[in-house]
Write a structure and sequence with these properties.
The chain has 341 residues and is of the alpha/beta class. The chain is built from 13 helices and 14 strands. Strands 10-9-11-8-12 form a five-stranded mixed beta sheet. A three-stranded parallel beta sheet has the order 4-1-5. β2 (50-51) and β3 (57-58) form a beta hairpin. The two termini are 39 Å apart.
Length: 341
């Protein structure tokens, strides 16, 4: 009998420990101590992260970091942006120079399993393609045999480019640069026949040219590029905070909660899912070391995922991209928020 009691007690203790709220990890403690989130961003990626003439950063990736700051510090403006080129980004994350890598970065096995990082979500489904001058008269990437191609070094695009040409028995020559700006400038100045990167970045480069009508994105998508934020491996509490911050942005769109209506919804909604999200239902924040209003602040200060998409990629934005796979799952897309319950 004593042995059964001891075993039951051990099991009960284990179950109790699993149900307790997460304790603050090292990154959360550091963020609270310094008073701002360190966010690694692209040096210039319209739609994702770019600074305007006043030095204010804007974009989808920027808004993910702003949402984390709203959840953790109560103020979405408490973010310091660290511009990084491709070779720098994972080193900066591993060394602690940044708390979040939000740099339109592809989630793949190598990066997730062997570079000291762990991805928290897919914030944008993309794919690699080619941008060419219309004057070349090309209609397909299969016509690029012998082409000179501009590509940014240290990116997954560099490897995928080589694999695509080799698989199709074509020759090519690369011209590589460390930064997005340098790579795009070389292509736009005529040093290369084609520029390859994610389709969203190609749209940005075409816009940057000043004469977008002179350039064409070829129809082939040669890879899957699921982009998303990553954090340093080993701090589960911080991982959970960033993961559920993005889930709150996406979940708010699914539930129809916006910056404009969140206060009214908070007063009137009888939906249990909505009430949890806006901080008047069950206290979900305690499980990730935050207060009850963490997700309410995200929506109030930053907005839902769809609001960010519309502002930076939608029909009224300079990029004017189709939402495509980034539509909600209820509208035929792949965006599906894990439930906050």
């Amino acid at each position: 009998m004593m042995k059964k009691i001891a075993v039951f007690g051990a099991v009960s203790a284990a179950l109790l420990s699993w149900s307790l709220p997460s304790q603050a990890g090292a990154v959360l403690d550091a963020v609270k101590s310094r008073g701002f989130v360190l966010c690694g961003v692209n040096t210039s990626a319209p739609g994702f992260s770019s600074a305007d003439s006043q030095g204010k950063w804007k974009g989808l990736d920027v808004n993910v970091c702003r949402a984390v700051a709203a959840a953790v510090l109560g103020d979405s403006e408490k973010v310091k942006y660290v511009p990084l080129n491709s070779p720098q980004r994972f080193t900066a994350l591993q060394s602690g120079e940044i708390d979040i890598l939000a740099r339109n970065t592809t989630w793949n096995m190598t990066r997730d399993a062997s570079q000291g990082s762990v991805f928290v979500a897919v914030s944008y489904y993309d794919g690699q393609g080619f941008l060419v001058p219309k004057s070349l008269g090309l209609k397909s990437a299969r016509e690029l045999d012998g082409a000179t191609v501009c590509v940014q070094t240290g990116t997954s695009s560099e490897k995928t480019l080589s694999e695509y040409f080799n698989a199709n028995g074509m020759s090519f020559k690369t011209v590589v640069f460390d930064t997005t700006e340098a790579t795009q400038s070389a292509f736009l100045s005529g040093r290369c026949d084609a520029y390859t990167t994610d389709m969203s970045d190609l749209a940005g480069a075409r816009l940057r040219s000043g004469n977008p009508q002179d350039y064409e994105i070829l129809p082939e998508t040669i890879s899957k590029e699921p982009l998303g934020p990553a954090v340093r491996r080993g701090d589960d509490e911080w991982f959970q905070i960033v993961r559920w911050t993005f889930a709150a942005m996406l979940g708010a769109e699914e539930l129809g909660v916006t910056k404009a209506n969140v206060d009214e919804v908070r007063k009137t909604s009888q939906s249990a899912d909505v009430r949890r999200l806006v901080g008047v239902g069950e206290d979900m924040g305690q499980m990730i070391g935050l207060d009850k209003d963490w997700s309410y602040r995200i929506i109030k200060q930053v907005g839902n995922y769809g609001e960010s998409w519309t502002e930076f990629f939608g029909p009224e934005s300079p990029l004017n991209l189709p939402r495509g796979l980034n539509r909600l799952w209820t509208d035929g897309g792949l965006m599906y928020a894990m439930p906050i319950r």
